[in-house]
Amino acid sequence: MGNEAVALGALHAGAARGIGYPGTPSSEILDVYNQLGGKAEWAPNEKVAAEVALGVSFAGVRAFTTMKHVGLNVAADVLFTAAYSGVDGALVFVVADDPGLASSQDEQDSRRYAVAAGVPLFEPSDSQEAYDYTRLAFEVSERWKIPVLLKLTTRVCHSGTIVMPRAPDTGLAAAHFVRNIPYRVMVPGHARPAHRRLRQKLAEIAEWNETDGPNQEIEGSRDLGILVSGVAYQHAREAASDASFFKVGMSYPLPMRKMLNFIESVKRAVVIEENDPVMADAVRAAGGTIESAPEMYRFGELNVSRVKRILAGDVTPEAVPPRGKPPQLCAGCPHGITFDLLKKYNCIVAGDIGCYTLAALPPLSSMDTQICMGASLGTGLGLRHVLPREEAKRVVSVIGDSTFVHSGLTGLAEMTYNVPPTGHVLLILDNTTTAMTGQQEHPGTGRLLDHSPANQLDYEKIARAMNVPNVGTFDPIRQPAEFEAALVEALAKDELTVLIVRRPCILAVARKGVKPATTEG
Ligand SMILES: Cc1ncc(C[n+]2csc(CCOP(=O)(O)OP(=O)(O)O)c2C)c(N)n1
Ligand code: SF4
After folding, report:
1. Exposed/middle/buried for 103, CB within 10 Å: 0-12, 13-18, 19+?
2. What's the gap in Å between 15 CA and the centre of ligand 2?
3. Rounded to whole angstroms, how far apart are CA atoms 391 and 491?
4. What's this model's pTM, rounded to 2 decimal places?
5. Distances (CA, A) of 63 to 85, 141, 441
6. Atom of ligand 2 nearest to the CA of 508
7. Labelling 300: which of 199, 428, 434, 468 has CA 20 to 30 A away?
8. Quick one: which atom of ligand 1 is closest to the CA of 431?
9. What ligand has the least distance to the C-alpha of 328?
10. Which ligand gives the minimal distance to the CA of 429?
11. Ligand 1: does its nearest atom lie under 6 Å from the Cβ of 441?
12. pLDDT tens digits for 292-314?
């Protein structure tokens, strides 16, 4: 599997540590890396993960960080300035995009981040390349002292092809600290020259990509030439096996001279790329002429038949795939009880991301907003601030435990700082795991990535330390009446209330060998 290949590649590249935050389709990488003997850890969120990885690289050794595409939004602050500071060992951002939104709130294209931040980006098209490009990403990062993006997509992460590994890297430097204040303290006076250094590095890397980059020309008929990257290559090869191909392995900085030569060498040139027209725009900006997919193919994943349609210029409506069974909470999921209650009291629910987001769908239909991780606090407070009193009093923010640790803590600080006139009610749904992405640990579970014991955050103490006047913890299955009474009381008050709704996810309990810290009996 592509994700396993990345883990093996990182291990063979001698990475000292892999740090990430789970998110489909990237989540397996760190677990596999840990099973292979690598040092892996979950961070509270992607920004922290990227910062820890940057710190590891500042010690002169190799580090990588894993996340899904929206995680890069959270880590972007680190990425942009780390591009200026540079790294000392190596730093690879492994980012998994989700074209078609199999399990995400948007289908952004991470290649745009490489252009915006000014960092090299590799795009594997199968497991072998996932392995090879992981190794190459560490090498490029170390050679030019620059963070490197490795962009995966769902099909690359979760499909399997045979991988031939290479001998692991040896003779890597041990961790050590060398003071270098002008390069690592990004105040304006240091950042201005750092920006110039970054552009110089990118110019050099662009030249390297022209001559030595992992780009491949596949000879075929000169009647049709296809410029392609990532998994789109697999679909295009099958859709037009006679064509010539120029397959881009490093998509930023692009090997533009080679691309233009290829385009000029064929009668008809078409770019096939998933999601955004990144290469199409770049070719045209460089003066090249190339056909690209009509706008309708920008949405969703490509496949062989869609590529055939693009090549045929077919813009008739596509067949709508049969609707699958809508996802639902597991039977007996503890989240169900909470949303039954919120529905009963006609609450306006500012929701968040996790299994509990399924409460937005019928039959519960009892979540009103969901934007990004942690947004339940801010959006709920915004509604409370301006809605007429009777409506404002019905607003409740609901967040899962992993999401609360990821990005709810600052929202809670906002709740206690800019207090709405009607107060506010926050429910933390503590099922003692990150259920949605496959039961990963986090700082609130009291266990590390390998499930060994660790410090456990205490949400009650956190809320009290932030001066929330009403705080309580309830087991919705063992204490349904008490939980309901506390919710009713909280909705009636013009005060701040945090209720921790604690009941382990039934799948986490069932998982062999792992006993949730708060499971009773
Ligand atoms: C920035 C970002 N990172 C990762 C994800 C993937 N993701 C979605 S929900 C979630 C956490 C779910 O855990 P929790 O809040 O505890 O709810 P549960 O699924 O356990 O009910 C994660 C990691 C995401 N959507 N956005
Ligand atoms: S995996 Fe756990 S949290 Fe998610 S729906 Fe099932 S029981 Fe609920």
Report:
1. middle
2. 34
3. 11
4. 0.96
5. 16, 10, 21
6. 2
7. 434
8. 20
9. 2
10. 1
11. no
12. 999 999 999 999 999 999 999 99
C-alpha 150/C-alpha 160 separation (Å) is: 18
Pocket test for ligand 2, best of 506, 509, 514 (most atoms within 8 A of CB): 506
Q: Distance (Å, rounded) from C-alpha 176 to C-alpha 173?
A: 8
Residues 6+ apart with CB under 8 A from 161: 126, 127, 128
Q: Which amino acid is at 287?
A: G
Proximal ligand: closest to the CA of 354? 1
Q: What percent of the chain has pLDDT over 70?
A: 98
Q: Whose CA is nearest to atom 2 of ligand 2?
A: 505
Contact 36/11 with Cβ under 8 angstroms?
Answer: yes
Task: Determine which residue's CA is closest to atom 1 belonging to ligand 2.
Answer: 435
Q: Provide the pLDDT confidence category of residue 519 given band limits of 50, 70 and 90.
A: very low
Residue 515, token pair as written in the block: 């006993």
Q: Which ligand is nearest to the CA of 441?
A: 1
Q: Spell out which residues line ligand 2, taking CB within 6 angstroms.
A: 329-330, 333, 335, 355, 431, 435, 505-507
Angle formed by the axes of helices 335-344 and 480-492, to 10°?
40
243-248, strands of its sheet edge to edge: 216-218, 243-248, 221-229, 268-272, 291-292
The whole-angstrom separation of Cα 28 and Cα 7 is 9
Nearest CA to ligand 2 atom 6: 330
Task: Tally Cβ neighbours within 10 Å of residue 256.
Answer: 18
Domains of the chain: 2-212 (3.40.50.970), 216-312 (3.40.50.920), 335-510 (3.40.50.970)
Q: Which atom of ligand 1 is nearest to the CA of 74?
A: 1
Dist. CA 406 → ligand 1 center (Å): 8
d(C-alpha 427, C-alpha 76), whole Å: 29
Give the number of other Cβ atoms within 10 Å of residue 500's Cβ: 21
